[in-house]
Write a structure and sequence with these properties.
- By secondary structure, the protein is of the alpha+beta class.
- It folds into 3 domains: about 230 residues, no CATH class; about 90 residues, no CATH class; about 110 residues, no CATH class.
- About 65% of the residues lie in helices and about 15% in strands.
- A hairpin with a 7-residue loop joins β3 and β4.
Length: about 475
């Protein structure tokens, strides 16, 4: 390898590593702010939080790596241009594609590695992240009461404690508001002291109270007419209350079957199974609709084993003329039966349509994820082919101008990506068009910038624009002066 290639590689690897970790850190902060409420106050150990953050970091690589590739390419080539090293290479007879040859090879290997990350690491990280988040949501907060403060960590219950003994855990001046009744009744319990704790599996609440009163406030639908308040005094009261679980097994099983937890082979299998499910659902709804509702006496519409009628002696008549010849009562009866049949058919089809809509939505998502894994390495190459020519054109290093240009291009890419994905998720476009739209849009820009940088264009040179603007202003003033003299 030539020394000039080693120089270019060293100039590029440093900004690439630095910008990658910076971008991943910024994206990680976004994840932390989204789930900060679920991570605090749950008594989680350090290993669980570290594993969750590691899975979230791996999940953000397909988004952070292209942005880091763009920013680092602008910084590296901008530094070379600002230090006149790029000019020296071109003066020695090296063209821009020849200068970028080692970087193109390096980025190609990174793109291939990005595909395997997107196909293998990211689905596993997503699945593990869903498992950890589900376990965190299943956990209950520890029963740590603060003096004079309400504890609202339990569903439909609010507990206030005047003081808690740190050694014996004895509670004093207890007030419990219980609104778990489905009919709207509320129970208020006031006790001098007692103990409140959770079962080991945090599914039940154990309550032992001493010297208190229980107030049951019940009301009917017309609450403004009558209200009942019952009072019960006790010396010792014990109770065990079940605590509803957060989430459900159905929700968790749905999470595990999501397209984000599968690789390309799993996505293809999921798409095939969803297509079969959709076809079976549509066949089960459309065929009975035609045979039993719309054409119950004509088996030739969809075929089948229905009774076939002999149509040799049938006479074609005008439907509206035959209706008009009926008496008013029979005519009203026919219209009523037709309206009822149409409503029943519409209702049956709407029910079947809603049942298959979930499978259709999941099918669109799986197709999007399948194409996303292919577009990820191409986005790395496209962003590099945009960043390297831009850095060679602007000839500015550091973090100022490169960050501004990178953010502009990335926001443009993100808007197009989200729009295309939304169109394909709704079924308006094919997944091929929606997911590859950003690549198809940015590739011509990359080719144009590479061509301009190869020919030493002053596309982003402020001095070049300043000279052009001054020439236009002087020309305008000359024309204006010549008109005034006339």
């Amino acid at each position: 390898m030539k020394k000039i290639h080693l120089l270019v590689l060293k100039a590029y690897l440093g900004p690439l590593i630095a910008t990658f970790f910076i971008v991943q850190f910024v994206l990680m902060m976004n994840f932390v702010w989204r789930y900060i409420d679920e991570l605090t106050g749950k008594g989680l150990d350090v290993s669980t939080i570290a594993e969750l953050l590691a899975c979230a970091t791996a999940n953000m690589i397909p988004l952070g790596l292209p942005l880091a590739m763009l920013l680092s390419a602008i910084m590296a080539m901008g530094n070379l241009g600002e230090n006149f090293e790029l000019l020296a290479m071109k003066s020695a007879g090296m063209s821009l594609p020849r200068i970028l040859k080692p970087l193109i090879i390096l980025v190609s290997f990174i793109a291939i590695g990005g595909f395997f990350i997107s196909n293998n690491l990211v689905p596993y990280a997503n699945k593990r992240m869903y498992e950890i988040l589900y376990d965190i949501r299943e956990q209950r907060q520890d029963m740590e009461f603060q003096d004079g403060m309400f504890f609202n960590g339990l569903p439909d219950m609010s507990i206030r404690v005047g003081h808690q003994d740190p050694e014996t855990k004895l509670l004093n001046d207890i007030i419990i508001f219980d609104t778990r009744a489905s009919n709207g009744d509320m129970t208020t319990t006031i006790a001098d002291s007692g103990y409140i704790s959770l079962s080991p599996d945090k599914s039940f609440l154990y309550v032992t109270l001493y010297n208190g009163d229980t107030y049951e406030h019940s009301r009917n639908i017309r609450w403004y007419e009558s209200n009942n308040l019952r009072r019960h005094s006790f010396k010792t009261q014990e109770g065990t209350f079940p605590i509803s679980k957060v989430g459900s097994n159905n929700e968790m099983s749905r999470k595990f079957t999501e397209s984000k937890t599968r690789n390309m082979i799993g996505l293809q299998e999921l798409s095939d199974s969803l297509l079969k499910m959709i076809d079976q659902s549509q066949a089960a709804s459309i065929a009975p609709l035609f045979k039993e509702r719309i054409f119950p006496r004509d088996s030739s519409i969809l075929g089948g084993d229905s009774i076939r009628f002999d149509k040799t002696n049938f006479v074609a008549i005008d439907f509206y003329d035959s209706i008009a010849n009926l008496p008013i009562r029979q005519r009203a009866k026919v219209f009523s039966q037709a309206n009822t049949s149409a409503r029943m058919s519409r209702g049956a089809y709407s029910f079947d349509e809603q049942s298959s809509k979930v499978a259709i939505t999941q099918y669109y998502r799986s197709e999007n994820e399948w194409h996303r894994m292919l577009t990820m390495p191409f986005s790395i190459l496209v962003f590099f082919m945009i960043g390297a020519p831009l850095g060679a054109i602007i000839r500015k290093g550091g973090l100022g101008m490169p960050i501004v240009i990178s953010v502009i291009f990335f926001v443009f890419y993100y808007i197009i990506s989200v729009s295309g994905e939304k169109m394909s998720s709704e079924g308006t476009w094919e997944a091929l068009y929606g997911m590859w739209l950003p690549i198809a849009t940015l590739t011509p820009i990359a080719i144009y910038l590479t061509r301009k940088a190869t020919h030493d264009s002053s596309l982003l040179d402020s001095d070049w624009y300043d000279v052009r603007i001054r020439k236009i202003i002087r020309r305008f003033r000359r024309k204006k002066g010549s008109k005034n003299r006339k």
